[in-house]
Amino acid sequence: METNERLQKITRFILERRAATEAKGNGRYPSFDFDYRWKHTLRVTQYGKQIAETEGADVEVVMAACLLHDISKFDDEQYGVEHGRVSARIARPFLETLGYSAEQVDNICFSIAVHVDDKADFEHPVTLESKIVSDADNIDRFGAYRLLLQFKNYAENYHALIEKAESRILTLRKYREGNITGTASGEKLFNHQLDLQINFLEHLINDSKLTIEAKL
Ligand SMILES: [Fe+2]
Ligand SMILES: [Fe+2]
pLDDT digits over 47-88, tens only? Predict the structure, then answer.
């Protein structure tokens, strides 16, 4: 089977499960935004591809793991800290039907399992591919759209908006100083996202300081 055929099969596998969960009604998390989660998944996969190509990783392993990294969320299964490990367990038997080597299946499953909290429920060394999947996920978590979502409920309340911006910027600056990413190209993209958010929020806060009475 060709790479693109496998990636298409993985895509269909996820979307069929999403459709089945939506059809039966998402009992545990009724307000879950499947559309956001799927678009996040697609963006993570593209970031993963880009980083894997630069870092010389197994691009298909990274893309397969990125596509499947949050599959438990489409399954109404598990949304908490376990969702990486649950996703890996859902993915494994399906991956075994696609003609991947045992090593590739383990690497994909490990990359999925550890993407939340660096912990897998099976023994496996840390791989370049697993670092890339986590980096790609973190990059999209700090994207422009995510920033908009975080602030959308504050748009009508200027005071609360500025307070939220001031507290968020402190967190972002901490991330900017921290060592969160696992690869050099992941770090570059991640820092770019953080810088965009920090710049925007700084601008917002600085503008708010001009909201004062006019005086010569
Ligand atoms: Fe996740
Ligand atoms: Fe994710």
Answer: 999 999 999 999 999 999 999 999 999 987 667 899 999 999
Cα(107)–Cα(126) distance, rounded to whole angstroms? 9
Which residues, in sequence order, are CB contacts of 88 under 8 Å at separation 6+?
A: 68, 109, 110, 112, 113, 120, 121
CA distance 62 to 114: 13
The fraction of the chain above a pLDDT of 70, given in percent, is 98
Same-domain status, 123 and 146: no
Model pTM above 0.90: yes
Task: Compute the distance between CA of residue 115 and CA of residue 1 in angstroms, rounded to an integer.
Answer: 27
Last residue of a domain, one of 103, 129, 155: 129
Measured from the alpha carbon of residue 85, the closest ligand is 1
Q: How far is the CA of 69 from the centre of ligand 1 (A)?
A: 6
**99 plus 201 within the same structural domain:** no
Of all ligands present, the nearest one to the C-alpha of 73 is 1
Q: What pLDDT, on a 0 to 100 scale, did the predictor assign at position 26? A: 67
Q: Are 191 and 179 in contact (CB under 8 A)?
A: no
* Residue 8: CATH number of its domain: 1.10.472.50
* Owner of token pair 């300081």: 209
Beta-carbon neighbours within 5 Å of ion ligand 1:
70
| Span from the CA of 178 to the centroid of ligand 2 (angstroms) | 20
User: What pLDDT digit, counting tens, does each position of 161-190 carry?
Assistant: 999 999 999 999 999 999 999 999 999 999
